[in-house]
């Protein structure tokens, strides 16, 4: 179905849409946000209608501005119906990102997240190296304490409990 | 300048482009990849030419398939020239992501990176908590060792050097 053929051929669906649908059964009572914005007839099998309800016109406006209506329809028709809602969500998300950041869009967010991942990986590697170092020091200390207290069973060595001093991450 | 008006009005630029440019000074010798693919005249002030050289036709093909030529031109014209190269790079990056993953595109990559950041933050928080716990245990041990060895200066307590046992991250 070529939706682009009908773009601009119908006037409006606002006030007259309800009575108009009486004589043309293929037109739904309330056109979807996409057809309303594109000023075209919203057929019963409109591929955009399930994902762009009339209550959310901004959702289509933003996606339309970045990808164009014909591209959005092309993307959806290339996917099985069960994946189309997710595809529309991701397209709207990307279009929002491009609107907020016209230079970098989603790619900018990906770049920032990749840098954050790198920084966190470096911090985690350092924290784990510090832990190993501290565990090594503690093993030496513990050996020393056991040696010093081996002849005095009354010594207060309860903090050497292995439940506390064992490996700290697995 | 409305580039969309000229789309499809020119035949090809392949073999005849060099001689054609002799009589029409506004046409460059080699059309950019965008104009070649769109089969239109590549003017000297073509807004796409600096970013879509004839040597990289795939770059424009992919971006064109996802955003459409008129949208790409619109995005570029809304930006100062110094930001256009970055904008084209990000558009091509996003178009590649959408081609590889038609359902989630760049949004999928962002979702995966956000999950990775959350996991790394949780691992880092745990590693730091473990470090604090271990430092607390070591402080107790150290106090005990100092108490036990205070009367025996010959004891081998060199591993209690503060350079090794101080705070491990700052």
Automatic annotation (TrEMBL), chains A, B:
InterPro entries: LOB (IPR004883)
LOB domain location: 30-131
One Pfam family in the UniProt entry: LOB
PANTHER family: LOB DOMAIN-CONTAINING PROTEIN 1, LOB DOMAIN-CONTAINING PROTEIN 4-RELATED
Family to which the UniProt record says this protein belongs: Belongs to the LOB domain-containing protein family.
Protein's UniProt name: LOB domain-containing protein
Biological source species: Nepenthes gracilis
